[in-house]
Design goal:
Number of domains: 1
Number of strands: 10
Distance between the termini: 49 Å
CATH superfamily: Aldolase class I
Strand order of the largest sheet: 1-2-3-6-7-8-9-10
CATH topology: TIM Barrel
CATH architecture: Alpha-Beta Barrel
Radius of gyration: 17 Å
Helix content: 40-55%
Amino acid sequence: MDWGMKNRLSQIIKPDGNCFFLPIDHGYFQGPTTSLERPGETIEPLLEYSDALFVTRGVLRSAIPANNSKPIILRVSGGATVVGSDLANEVLTTSIEEIIRLNATAVGVSVFIGSEYENETLQNLSTLVNECEDYGIPVMAVTAVGKELEKRTARFLGLCCRVCAEHGARVVKTYWCEKDFDKVVNGCPVPVVMAGGPKCETETEVLEFVHHGMQCGAIGINLGRNIWQSPNPVPMARSLQAIIHEKASVKEAKDIFDEMKNRAE
């Protein structure tokens, strides 16, 4: 692996081998999102607990200060919205020149396995890998399932992750599943990062699935709504950081959450 690729991966994956990505790219397909109406203000108190920011070029330019020191994972696929006929109908939206111009540390692209646009989105991934490898820029494949939540089984997610790795992704982001998530991770030859999915009902529910996923071999998270839509986003971010980088138990993380919440009140 070239030094540039190693260096960029080391910026988003910390020395302990784990990572905490904070995504705020939701607006690229669903427009104004609750708590992300002003994304720069939303993430300001959360950045110290995260390792990298997953963001589109538009929000990066308009809402993230240029002196931001957090690595940027640039969302580079899009072209479909929640009001369109199919969320899976994505294309590559951002050129390699733009990726370099924005000084992105890594890039992310959605892949919709099993959808009508499976072939096209796998081509998006392959094209992006071909271009980014020339410049030592890691590609994160996002195994997306759109509105078809019932597909989130270990067998399906394991297939998605392996296919993305086989196509050259350096990191794969996928959904957690309660049963056999270890098989999803073990069947993927590159690091697996957990997506947040729909917003959970309680803080403990979030902490439990993240802790379980880490125990199964995931290296970290790419969680957005379950953090910045929480009534207590800063304690939520700090408690997740404890699980990811301090090997905290669910109880220990919840204690951190409660202490910060009570102190703020």
